[in-house]
Design brief:
By secondary structure, this protein is α+β, with helices and mostly antiparallel strands. The protein contains 10 helices and 17 strands.
Amino acid sequence: MINLYGTHIASLSIHRVGNKSRNEGMFLSAQPYKLDDELTPLLKEYFFKPFRDKEENYFQFRHDTDLEFHEMFNLVTAIFDQPEQVHAVSQKISKYLFDQSMHPHIKSGEVYVAYLENLQIDNEKVDGVGIFKSEIKQDFLQFSEKENQLDAVLQQGVNLNKLDKGCLIFNTKKEEGYKILSVDSNRYDTRYWLEQFLGVDAFEDENFFTKKYLKFCQDFAKDVVLPAEDKQQEVMFMNRAVNHFAKNDNFEETNFMNEVIDNPSLIPEFQHYKTEKAPKYKIEDLSNFPISNTAVSAARKKIKNVINLDTNIQIKMDFINPDSAEKFVEKGWDEERQMYYYLVYFNKEQKS
């Protein structure tokens, strides 16, 4: 979990980079930007709001050989080692971003490099580096009074309600490539920001493993449980899977299979499916790991717990109280109508 409300922008440098393939050039500021009390809270909201509203999917710098050969890792490390040199390093970061701006779709824009203090991550206070980019300009009207006439002038500027690209690099887990959060509002050049500029991969921690394993379970339910049984059992399998994760601090695969898979004949199917699909989810050797409650809560919101019937009726299962769906919903076949039915038991209707 992160908390950015107490974060202080200790230094901010602003530069501009163009599209190198279009010979647009770049502009590097000679000095850090002087923040004032009026602009600082606006910039903090502009920079940090996308990360507060976004699911925490962490990245880390990654290099095929060694991190010592990773350009951005070295530049960020130089800032953490000597924060007073952040402006000089920000120029190098902007030059490196400019060198990656070769695709014709990449837009020119302002680059903000900030040294940040008092970020909170996983209940620890650390420093950080923020790199942000504004690309999309919006039209706005500026008004001026001239004698007895009010004039309107059309200008362009940055909308402080929407950050185009940004990343927060936390000064923690250095040996693993730091912990990094990234946002990108413009989907036309995603590879450019994450892969070509930042050079990151997913950070493989408990959040990553929990999320990946639950996604694997969701696909198993759809691809195996549903064809073998029915929609109700698909929903109930995921119901049991999510609740198993929710009530345990650590995941152990054998316990998971025994508790969650009702039909014993599906256990070898589960094992075979994992062997076949594991590389897709990066869970090949994953059978024990700490569980992330944050990832479980996020997965619970995404997993569909509704049975849609062709008679325009929906039945919504309860993921909070899984026993209810097991005890009070029965599926059957009506010979006279030649139709399936669900029988639902209850004592009284609840007021909405």
